[in-house]
Design goal:
The chain has about 280 residues and is of the alpha/beta class. It has twelve helices and eight strands. The chain has an eight-stranded mixed beta sheet, with helices on both faces. Helix 3 links the parallel strand 3 and strand 4.
């Protein structure tokens, strides 16, 4: 889960880059929002404002390198953030109450308001897409367009089983694991990942609903991108989103998995540009 530049580096070099960020401060800026110090990056100078929301345990650079690097900075101002307890928004330590999707979504909206961005579109990956759905539903006068991928409005027991298959981080693909270990350290990352999986299990035990009722409140155009070989989000989630979000459409990557915006960055960015502009 790294940029095209980072992908050609050795794991050791990537680790040193992250440690350098930690020593000098962090790659972006920090601002206090609702009494929490939030790390964010603002890239570009275009009039079109675009909020990028990372997936579970993700951060600005682990999750959105190819977008921060390659999307047209003369057209867009890109704002990518680390939710509380993720990335460089530490402290606080990450927590996962049952409403953590709603908590983080409203905090992201508060961040954008504090930064003075009153109209913007959203790119949301995985958990970030679920938060994007919540923001679009609850702030319809603010969100212009929404693009999500690897995202759901609910969890099932099958979803939990697929995620639990990756509970042992030593079984992860090393290209995905190394940036996380470099950013968090193994102990914090393992603890956070296990806490996240336990929180998902708790949500499923209480019905699995993440934001079903919000879908019909979404007014903006919505693009749902999907990798047909996504091991974490089966295709059955996509028709549900399309049926319940009135102004939505889908673009599919036949060979894509969960990280289509990284693996197929150029094609992904091209579809985002067509959708937004």
């Amino acid at each position: 889960m790294m940029t095209s530049f980072y992908n050609i580096l050795s794991n050791t070099c990537r680790r040193l880059i992250y440690r350098q960020y930690s020593k000098q401060s962090y790659p972006g800026k920090k601002i206090e929002v609702n009494k929490i110090n939030i790390h964010y990056e603002e890239v570009g100078y275009g009039n079109y404002k675009l909020l990028l929301i990372p997936g579970a345990l993700g951060s600005t650079r682990t999750d959105f390198g190819p977008q921060l690097e390659k999307l047209d900075k003369s057209k867009f101002t890109l704002i990518s953030w680390d939710p509380p307890g993720y990335g460089f928004s530490i402290p606080p330590e990450r927590t996962f109450p049952r409403n953590f999707y709603q908590r983080d979504a409203h905090l992201a909206a508060a961040l954008m308001k504090k930064l003075g961005h009153h109209k913007y579109s959203i790119l949301g990956w995985s958990d970030g897409g679920t938060m994007g759905l919540i923001i679009a539903a609850n702030y319809p006068d603010v969100v212009q367009k929404l693009a999500i991928w690897g995202s759901t409005a609910y969890f099932t027991n099958d979803d939990v089983q697929m995620m639990n298959a990756a509970r042992d981080i030593q079984q992860w693909n090393r290209k995905m694991l190394e940036p996380m270990l470099a950013l968090y350290g193994e102990e914090y990352f393992r603890k956070m990942w296990h806490n996240y999986l336990d929180a998902v299990q708790d949500i499923v035990s209480n019905g699995g609903d993440l934001c079903k009722d919000d879908l019909k409140k979404i007014q903006c155009e919505t693009l749902i991108l999907h990798g047909d070989k996504d091991p974490l989000v089966p295709f059955f989630h996509i028709p549900y989103l399309l049926e319940n979000i009135k102004n939505s459409k889908c673009y599919r990557f036949p060979e894509g998995r969960h990280n289509i915006h990284l693996r197929y960055a150029d094609e992904f960015n091209e579809q985002i540009l067509k959708f937004l502009l």
